[in-house]
């Protein structure tokens, strides 16, 4: 059977290890110069200033806080995503309104999103599913903020503009299976300085250290105040050093992922029982998942066949409102039929930069064997 092949895995080399070791030998472990450097390095890729945080989930929580989301507000959200995209809005007290995705790239359908917007909508949250950017030009609401959940898509572009600059606020994840890693980590980008400052303040307990902004500035040089509650979502120097090193390799990661996607396409295109992912002509994706659709009700059987072969495929994701926490709030199945139909067929084949051509061919061969072709 051979060694198990995961659906995703980090790529860490000696340059990454050296970057982390340099921080460990220095004076700073958290909130030091490596944080500033990583935020600048990420901003160069994203096309907007960045605030580093502890995870992709933290990035969403911070972004909704910066947007002023609270009780009485609604957040329109794509359902084909990890639950955190919706859960973090609900944790701020907002009502999550799910709008369906479009069938080709599984990103938020602009018509469905527009139909879901009301006078109470504070944020419209799109998700760059599998690394393919959503159509943010078509999605932009008139009286609400547009959020890009770009956990899958750092390094991608839409109509020549980088992911990170397409929406009012963008969130990233740097979990090990993502396109670059800081171990655990995430970030928020925004062009609006006020929005970014609210994000920066929320990730540091809401602390106000600028005397000009303090309510009681004469307490002494030690004084700091909290005007609005925040949390400790600071990403430490040691992890930001890893992030900067990984960003130096991001172009190579992107190229390798694209080569694997092309090899899969060549090897699987003639299988009638599979529908392969496609790319919009305006998109240059950072392919995060290779999400095939298994037709005729055979997804579970192919999943079990490949897993038994040591190919550790995954399903990404159940529609977010299927989780019992949303069921208990009254959300019902059937409200986003395109997403639900996709979920019933979806399977993520292994895709990560250190996959060899032989690894890719192994997945292709095992898949072809299942279909008998």
UniProtKB/TrEMBL annotation:
Q: Which CDD domains match?
A: AHBA_syn
What does the record give under GO molecular function?
Answer: transaminase activity
InterPro entries, alphabetized: DegT/StrS_aminotransferase, PyrdxlP-dep_Trfase, PyrdxlP-dep_Trfase_major, PyrdxlP-dep_Trfase_small
Which Pfam family, giving just one, matches this sequence? DegT_DnrJ_EryC1
List keywords of the entry alphabetically.
Aminotransferase, Pyridoxal phosphate, Transferase
Q: Which family does it belong to?
A: Belongs to the DegT/DnrJ/EryC1 family.
This chain belongs to the protein called DegT/DnrJ/EryC1/StrS family aminotransferase
Upper classification of the source organism reads:
Bacteria, Bacillati, Actinomycetota, Actinomycetes, Pseudonocardiales
């Amino acid at each position: 059977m051979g060694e198990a092949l995961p659906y995703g895995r980090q790529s860490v080399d000696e340059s990454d290890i050296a970057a982390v070791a340099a921080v460990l030998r220095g004076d700073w472990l958290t909130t030091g110069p490596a944080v500033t450097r990583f935020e600048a390095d990420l901003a160069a890729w994203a096309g907007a200033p960045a605030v580093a945080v502890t995870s992709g989930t933290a990035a969403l929580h911070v972004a909704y806080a910066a947007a002023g989301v609270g009780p009485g507000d609604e957040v329109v959200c794509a359902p084909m995503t990890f639950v955190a995209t919706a859960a973090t809005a609900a944790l701020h007290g907002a009502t999550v309104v799910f709008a369906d995705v479009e069938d080709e790239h599984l990103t938020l359908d602009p018509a469905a999103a527009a139909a879901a917007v009301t006078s109470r909508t504070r944020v419209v949250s799109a998700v760059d599913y599998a690394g393919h950017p959503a159509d943010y030009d078509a999605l932009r609401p008139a009286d609400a903020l547009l959020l890009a959940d770009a956990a899958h898509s750092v390094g991608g572009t839409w109509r020549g503009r980088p992911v990170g600059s397409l929406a009012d606020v963008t969130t990233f994840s740097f979990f090990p299976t993502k396109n670059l890693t800081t171990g655990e980590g995430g970030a928020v980008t925004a062009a609006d300085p006020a929005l970014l400052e609210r994000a920066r303040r929320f990730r540091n307990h809401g602390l106000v250290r600028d005397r000009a902004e303090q309510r009681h500035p004469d307490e002494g040089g030690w004084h700091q105040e909290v005007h609005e509650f925040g949390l400790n979502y600071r990403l430490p120097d040691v992890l930001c050093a890893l992030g900067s090193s990984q960003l130096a390799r991001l172009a190579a990661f992107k190229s390798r992922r694209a080569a694997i996607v092309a090899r899969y396409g060549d090897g699987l295109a003639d299988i009638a029982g599979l529908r392969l992912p496609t790319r919009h002509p305006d998109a240059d994706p950072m392919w995060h998942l290779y999400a095939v659709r298994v037709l005729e009700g055979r997804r579970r059987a192919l999943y079990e066949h490949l897993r038994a072969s040591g190919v550790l495929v995954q399903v990404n994701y159940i529609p977010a409102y299927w989780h019992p926490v949303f069921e208990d709030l009254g959300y019902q199945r059937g409200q986003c039929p395109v997403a639900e139909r996709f979920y019933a067929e979806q399977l993520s084949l292994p895709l990560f930069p250190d996959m060899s051509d032989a690894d890719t061919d192994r997945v292709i061969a095992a898949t072809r064997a299942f279909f008998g072709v």
